[in-house]
Amino acid sequence: MKKLLLFVCLTLPTLLVAQTVNTVTGTITDASTNAPVSGASLVIKGKLTGTTTDENGNFKLNTTSALPLTLVVTGVGFQKQEVTVSSASQPVAIGLSSQTELLNEMVVTASRVEESILESPVSIEKMDTRAIRETPSFSFYEGLQNVKSVEMVTSGLTFKQINTRGFNSTGNSRFLQLVDGVDNQTPGLNFAVGNLFGSSDLDMESVELIPGSASALYGPVAFNGVLMMRTKNPFQYQGLSAQARVGVNHINEQYADPHGLYDFAVRYAKAFNNKFAFKVNASYFTGLDWYATNYTDVDPGTSPEQRGDNNPARNALNIYGDDEARQLADVGRVSRTGYEERYLMNYNSYSVKLNGALHYRITDNMELIYQYNYNQGRAAYTGSNRFMLNNFNFQQHRVELKGSNYFVRAYASLEDSKDSYNGKGLGQLINKTWVRDLSGNIVPEAQADDMWFTRYREAYIGDINNVAAGDHAAARAFADQGRFLPGSADFNAQKDRLIATQGLSGAGILSQSKLYHAEGQYDFSSKIKVFDLLAGGNFRMYDMFTNGTLFDDKNHKITIKEGGAFVQASKRVINEHLKLTASIRYDKNQNFEGRFTPRASAVYTVATNHHFRTSYQTGFRNPTPGDQYIKLNAGPITILGGVPDNSKGMNVYENSFTSTSLGPFFGAFGAAVGSGTPPQQAVMQTKDLLVKSNVPYIKPERVQTFEVGYKGLLNNNLLVDANYYFSSYNDFILNQVVMQPESPVLGPDGKINPQAAMDLLNGDSHLYQLYTNASERVTSQGATVGFTYLLPRNYTLGANGTWADFNLRNANPNDIPAFNTPKYRTTVTFGNTEIAKNIGFNVAWRWQDTFEWTSTFNQLRPGTINAYSIVDAQVSYKMSPIKSIVKLGANNVFNNQVYQAYGSPSIGAVYYVSIVFDQLMK
């Protein structure tokens, strides 16, 4: 960043010398009504310089470009128009013609250059300014779930995850989210935190989405797709805008009363002489989050027909501490009494987003930008446990130098986990603080579980006076004597202490990690006449710090460096009916071999507005910093990241036994000794049941995709888009558990070493959970079809459907990430921007069928997500005299309380009313 700023400062005086300024003025009106068009955008073709019209449709543009010049004029709801200006002495009058939104869509994300959405080489979806404003959902981000191909999973009010084409999760590190080109992931979590951080609705201009791998242009994070969000440029969107939105949730719920939601935002932007502009944004949201209260018994040691509230070994999904269960002699299987999640989490969610940006146009085609984002919030999310991001702080700095055919960008992302903690772990730890021995004295935490089960057994078998024998309820009550009740002073004191304690002895989470990224791109197309050529590259570095709580970084730094470069060429042939595009990217991470990811596509235009496309895409995903460098000694097992440096000198990957071979060995050894065989001889007889593990070090995941599609416009009022894809996946990242003895696994003869087997029996060994890759190949396929139909009198009808299918082939399901995607999904939308004067509405209906959700939260045991349908709706009223829109709406109108991920809360209705003031509103 410092070098970039130094370059600009040194070259700026030269660039400003001897520049002649022309001033172009004029008025833009609606061609059909002659009404002035405010907020229309004018840009000099091939340059960055431009301006917008004021509330009377007037504009003034200062430029150093020589006359004549061409102005590109755009406005929401109008056809794009190019106007030639030959003289600056006469005002320019421009009349814009109304246009259907179906024809007025340009996208950038698919090819990293602007092109018609109809001619995109790969599937791409878009929400423009109008769609963002008119979404029936509570926010634009939630409105994305109405977009074709999109899967959205809700963990809370401010934590929603976007995904496409399967392998869904509540923390999606396979999907890239960009805001103005900046990766919105936090460095420690390694995925974007939904709508907790980012931009407010007021500042969002457009959203583009690529379903499926886009690694060939965007690198390793874009394994499952890209979401590109663009905010409003202060040169083009000036003035004051503000929003107040108030809602209510928790309607007719068992554990919470109706509660208010409050969302406020303000934006202000101003430009000076078309040279300098700034904008500031501030937004604040608060509300009571959804409660996770799924108390289904999921105990793996109890047969399904015996599970339930009366099961002594009950392990309820959202009760924590009851997952500690044992088989007691003369009693049976019993679990500890746990704590419901609602007493452990802070459901008072909030999100603060502050943003400021400075834009300076050095020349007509060179603009310098500095932007700062400050975010802080609270949200619950479901991972391997239920986590509380409590006062989580996320900051970003961005500096960018850009022209019409290039950019150079650098940014830094900094996180501070603050008061975040593991909610499930918190319940387990509180359970160890109050257990009493048979004399009534509190025992040390390390002895708590053993003593609790001892009390239970003694009471159940009748060894405790005044406690009925053979009564599970009475035995549990005796074992629970002294238990800290939720809400009590003792409970709250332990809760606060454990949240403040980071590492294995507490529930607190520490991460103050950083991400640094620099990239650039140049479009050579104007200099090469034979074909279009685009090239770019990037470098990024993760700087991790957990103070030894997750990584071995207390006394030395852990940094991860990676970079890549791409080149893309395209050309039109056969009288420009066929557009061929090919790109290739090379990426290198310090811990892995370099990798090429090619992409090739063809788009054939058979007639005006009818386009067929086919593409071959490849993608890959580097293991996250956690996958590479976690080193967490969790007592009986150590979780170990999979790069060689992380286990250097430990000899774990090279010298260990498979966990699946331990049971047969221990069983056979015990049977041999039980029949009278001496231990040494029993070892020699059974040692060959042990299997040396063969765990490779971790490497990136890979995918190849073939896709065909059609996009066309019929009669200027029906847009049809359909595609089919087939994907093949290799090297999925997974965990494998091994046991390492102190002695070498193999003896000099190449067979299992008897001393290593004896180490297992003597306890001279340790369990490890290693990060590695699956060796099996799996495939998926799917298809989507959608249409948008412009009906008479300004009505719009849209519908889309998605089919997704997963083929495990011959792979072990335990070695493959769960597909976690319904086979069928569909959405129907219906709306009118002006059903009557100043009144509009929009309705969206979504349905998906039943599927099984598998995740580490339930130890990879599947849970059913039942089929459901949801309706969102809004009615709006435009108050032109005060430049405001009032909206009355609802998410989930009929309050169908549904689960979207197993272990996450059920989601009910949100009813809301909002008012938006926009100084540039027409």
Automatic annotation (TrEMBL):
<dbReference type="Pfam" id="PF13715">
    <property type="entry name" value="CarbopepD_reg_2"/>
</dbReference>
<dbReference type="GO" id="GO:0044718">
    <property type="term" value="P:siderophore transmembrane transport"/>
</dbReference>
<dbReference type="InterPro" id="IPR037066">
    <property type="entry name" value="Plug_dom_sf"/>
</dbReference>
<feature type="signal peptide">
    <location>
        <begin position="1"/>
        <end position="18"/>
    </location>
</feature>
<keyword id="KW-0732">Signal</keyword>
<feature type="domain" description="TonB-dependent receptor-like beta-barrel">
    <location>
        <begin position="503"/>
        <end position="893"/>
    </location>
</feature>
<dbReference type="InterPro" id="IPR036942">
    <property type="entry name" value="Beta-barrel_TonB_sf"/>
</dbReference>
<dbReference type="InterPro" id="IPR000531">
    <property type="entry name" value="Beta-barrel_TonB"/>
</dbReference>
<comment type="similarity">
    <text>Belongs to the TonB-dependent receptor family.</text>
</comment>
<dbReference type="InterPro" id="IPR008969">
    <property type="entry name" value="CarboxyPept-like_regulatory"/>
</dbReference>
<dbReference type="GO" id="GO:0009279">
    <property type="term" value="C:cell outer membrane"/>
</dbReference>
<keyword id="KW-0798">TonB box</keyword>
<protein>
    <submittedName>
        <fullName>Outer membrane receptor proteins, mostly Fe transport</fullName>
    </submittedName>
</protein>
<keyword id="KW-1134">Transmembrane beta strand</keyword>
<keyword id="KW-0998">Cell outer membrane</keyword>
<dbReference type="InterPro" id="IPR012910">
    <property type="entry name" value="Plug_dom"/>
</dbReference>
<dbReference type="InterPro" id="IPR039426">
    <property type="entry name" value="TonB-dep_rcpt-like"/>
</dbReference>
<feature type="domain" description="TonB-dependent receptor plug">
    <location>
        <begin position="118"/>
        <end position="226"/>
    </location>
</feature>
<dbReference type="Pfam" id="PF00593">
    <property type="entry name" value="TonB_dep_Rec_b-barrel"/>
</dbReference>
<keyword id="KW-0675">Receptor</keyword>
<keyword id="KW-0813">Transport</keyword>
<keyword id="KW-0812">Transmembrane</keyword>
<dbReference type="GO" id="GO:0015344">
    <property type="term" value="F:siderophore uptake transmembrane transporter activity"/>
</dbReference>
<keyword id="KW-0472">Membrane</keyword>
<dbReference type="Pfam" id="PF07715">
    <property type="entry name" value="Plug"/>
</dbReference>
